[in-house]
Amino acid sequence: MKTFVYSAHAYDRPFLEQAARKRHELVFTEEKLTLATAHYASGFDAIAVFTADDCSAPVLDKLYTQGIRYIALRSAGYDHIDLHHAATLGIRVSHVPEYSPYSIAEHAVAMLMMMNRNLLEAQRLMKLQDFRLDTLTGFDIHGKTVGIIGTGKIGIAFARIMKGFGATVLACDPVQHAEAVALGVQYVSLEELLRGSDIVSLHCPLNETTRYLLSAKQFEWMKDDSILINTSRGAIVHTKDLIQALEDKKLGGACLDVYEREKGLFFEDHRHAVIQDEDFLKLRSMKNVLLTGHQAFLTREALTGIAETTIQNLDYWQLGYKSPYELHADETFRGSSARASAKDSGSITVLSI
Ligand code: NAI
Fold first, then answer.
1. Which one in 104, 137, 215, 228 has a CA-CA gap of 20 to 30 Å to 111?
2. What is the domain extent for residue 83?
3. Could you tell me which residue ranges the D-isomer specific 2-hydroxyacid dehydrogenase NAD-binding domain spans (predicted)?
């Protein structure tokens, strides 16, 4: 299938080429999909996009008039595409529901430990040959309470690690997962979770019900000195309210792999630009904020998984089948776990191609 790949970078392109094994004609650009770049895909059957690409209605309209009928998202999240509009146009959309949930869960843990044990500062002092420990005190995770918002694949992987540390794990999710209950995770309301947790980690998708799920009121509920981890999507957190909570010393710290206005910022080289986003600059300047540029997925295993499922989706379409990972206009909070378990139960025939 002739596929135009937007937002292709040196880190993921070889994995896609390897997975395609010349079954599909892939043409790559590092540029993002926007209204201005949509015409690059003219004459192609499909496009493959990532989280920073703009799949809003006007862009979909333009793609459709150019003949695009298939969009393969190379991400689990699908908040960057107007699924309703794609369905109206008859454009089929697939995503990658699962690709090493460990990569994201482990990054969340890495950020937590880096913040808690002051590793950045420790390294800085080490280079200065200042071996005093006065500023480096952390706390044990053992015995603490960790709240997980969203117990799908990534949330459960994170819960398992936190259980291994010896933490009590609370969770909130409209769907109670048996696997989480079996791990000893206790489901509670959002308020109970926030009031009771020393560490809160976000692992739910961004949609109409989760946008600004954590705003001023919820930060007020959180324990003093608690740590927030967000490896999910930036807009689940109200950024200005988060900054206020950090400034008021309500929260102890924030570990953020995602940022509300990361589009046009992350994944790109801005070394020679003057960044104007005040909230971003503020967060970056705060000692108790750790930021990474949406890299939680960046492991070899995850990149292999993303590439293989993306190509598998193209395989299905090329052969005239529906992919098991197609998204529908009514996807809201049911998340990808539901589809993954449908597949496991054998209700979907997987082709050996
Ligand atoms: P999943 O679909 O397996 O699980 C999501 C869970 O969130 C489901 O159990 C769902 O019921 C729950 N949920 C939905 N609405 C909720 C609400 N209002 N409150 C609490 N829970 C709610 O998804 P998975 O694979 O675990 O991924 C979670 C999210 O992680 C993705 O949607 C994506 O935004 C983010 N992600 C971030 C990456 C990164 O590199 N930073 C990479 C991959 C995913």
1. 215
2. 2-99+299-322
3. 109-296
pLDDT of residue 330: 82
145 and 277 together in one domain = yes
pLDDT exceeds cutoff 60 at 341:
no
- The total number of structural domains in the chain stands at 2
Average pLDDT over residues 183-201: 98
80-96 pLDDT tens trace: 999 999 999 999 999 99
Q: Judge if 160 and 276 occupy the same domain.
A: yes
Q: How far, in Å, from the CA of 288 to the mean position of ligand 1?
A: 25
Distance of CA 152 from the midpoint of ligand 1 (Å)? 6
| DSSP β-bridge partners for residue 170 | 147, 186
- Report whether residue 234 contacts ligand 1, using a CB cutoff of 6 Å: no
Which among 341, 342, 331 has a CA at the least distance from the CA of 80?
331
Domain shared by 9 and 137, yes or no = no
Do 40 and 85 fall within a single domain?
A: yes
Looking at the fold, whether 123 and 205 belong to one and the same domain comes out as: yes
What's the distance, CA 205 to chain centroid?
Answer: 8
* Average confidence (pLDDT) over 201-217: 97
Residue 170 confidence (pLDDT)? 99
Ligand 1 contact via 101 beta carbon (within 6 Å): yes
Instruction: Find the CATH number of the domain harbouring 191.
Output: 3.40.50.720
Catalytically annotated residues: 233, 262, 294
Give backbone dihedrals phi and psi of 227, rounded to 5 degrees, phi first. Answer: -115, 135
Q: Please give the number of the atom of ligand 1 that sits closest to the Cα of 156.
A: 26
The answer to the question of residue 327 being in a domain is no
β-sheet bridge partners, residue 49? 73
Which pLDDT score is estimated for 331?
77
Q: Is the pLDDT of residue 54 over 80?
A: yes
The 2-5 sheet, strands edge to edge:
25-28, 2-5, 46-49, 70-73, 92-94
- What's the start-to-end Cα distance of the chain, in Å? 14
Q: Quick one: pLDDT at residue 143?
A: 98
